Amino acid sequence: MDDAQQQESTAPQAAQPAEASPPAGAGGLSDRDARVLRFERRTWRYPAAKDEAIRTEFGLSPARYYQLLNALIESPAALAAEPVLVGRLSRLRAARRQGWSPAASVTAGSGRAPSGADVVEPYPTDPT
């Protein structure tokens, strides 16, 4: 083996990007998908701690991680592998989606735009 071949064989291998999923293993889940499910079993006291762990463990932004998690929740393979966890995550997601609307803060979650009857004045006006 000449020097060039030896340098190539001893050069450190580049880390696999977190975006690339390895081929599916047993149960139809990739290694990354299985890691995401294991990660979601943990409990977090603070959201910032979870966000930092996402960056460290997966090399992803939290927004991208949650995109991947949402796709994983819809996966039949994930449901087959972790039915209780995927069911819980799916219910949490549905509750968040149901409770959110652009006008929710104005009308206390009614999901509709405020009308004149919904507006409460701070002090009654004198009709005279």
The Rg value, from CA coordinates, equals: 24 Å
What is the number of beta strands? 0
* Form type: globular
The chain-level mean pLDDT equals 74
InterPro entries: DUF3263
Organism: Pseudofrankia inefficax (strain DSM 45817 / CECT 9037 / DDB 130130 / EuI1c) (Frankia inefficax)
Pfam families: DUF3263
Biased composition (Low complexity): 1-24
Q: Could you explain how this protein is built, in words?
A:
The chain has a domain at 24-99. The chain is globular, with a radius of gyration of 24 Å. With 128 residues, the chain is mainly α. Helices cover 55% and strands 0% of the residues.
Considering the chains and any ligands shown, give keywords for the structure:
disordered N terminus, mainly alpha, 128 residues
Break the fold down into its secondary structure elements and pairings.
Elements: H1 3-10, H2 31-41, H3 47-58, H4 62-73, H5 76-81, H6 83-99, H7 104-107
Summarize the structure.
Pfam families: DUF3263. This protein is mainly alpha-helical and 128 residues long.
